[in-house]
Amino acid sequence: MLIGFSTDKGRNRASNQDSGMASSEGRFLAVADGLGGHSGGAEASGTAIGLFNMRAGGIGSLEDMKAFMEDANSAILRMADEDPELKGMGTTMTAAVIKAGKALVAHVGDSRAYLVRDGSAKQLTSDHSLAGQLVQSGFLKAEEASTHPGRYAVVRCLGASKELEPELIEAELEPDDVMVLCTDGFWEHVNEVEIAERFSVTADLMSVCEDLMRLANIRGGEDNITVVAALIDESDVR
């Protein structure tokens, strides 16, 4: 499995509260977006990614992914309880483990997971935002969500409450598929057609991630920007 990764604070933010990682040896990848304007956003996203890095090797099912998300949520809540300066911190989380020809995905928030195959990109996750809920309920068209003011209002995240309902997805994989995980600072400015085109033409995922990160910055860069990618090979689907 070949991987790529790029992150940047963007043009309008003083710091980068995004976190992300990918492991070709461990066959897992993840992104987390600390909630902007909330104290401890960087700590929340870093905690979630750090815990996933330690736990991903032992994950073999969606139930394991759910248990990880619950533990990450508890860890963030505990940190916020122990340190008043971290009160109210939270983070999105989109994580994937490649196991026996499948992508096991767990997700909360408005970061995204895409599967690129045969020149097309399919969004696997739902946006857990007010705009995303309106689209899912049929009150808003998908193309209208990108400009709706509710696109920034996250309705599910790690650290919000003791009750957590992660979205769990199992996707069949084929050789030459590319898994792409990204935060909203990336997908708001780079569309599915561009993701599909760029990740379909080369195995140099690092260069593609860096190029598309720069494109997101040129087109706005209002938020932190993070993208990670993994190219699936024959050994990953056996």
In DSSP terms, counting alpha (H) and pi (I) runs of 4 or more, how many helices? 7
Q: What would the principal axes of the Cα set say about the shape?
A: globular
Report the radius of gyration as a whole number of Å.
17 Å
Widest β-sheet, arrangement of strands: 1-10-9-6-7
Oligomer: single chain
Give the H and E element order: EEEHHEEEEHHEEHHHE
Instruction: Give the strand content.
Output: 25-35%
Which homologous superfamily in CATH is the superfamily?
PPM-type phosphatase domain
Distance between the termini: 12 Å
CATH topology: Phosphatase 2c, domain 1
Give a short account of the largest sheet.
Answer: 5 strands, antiparallel
Describe the structure.
The chain is α+β, with helices and mostly antiparallel strands and 238 residues long. It has one domain: Phosphatase 2c, domain 1, CATH 3.60.40. It has seven helices and ten strands. It has helices at 41-55, 62-82, 130-136, 142-145, 184-187, 192-199, 205-218, and strands spanning 2-8, 18-23, 28-33, 93-99, 102-108, 112-117, 120-123, 167-172, 178-182, 225-231. The model has no long low-confidence stretch (mean pLDDT 92).
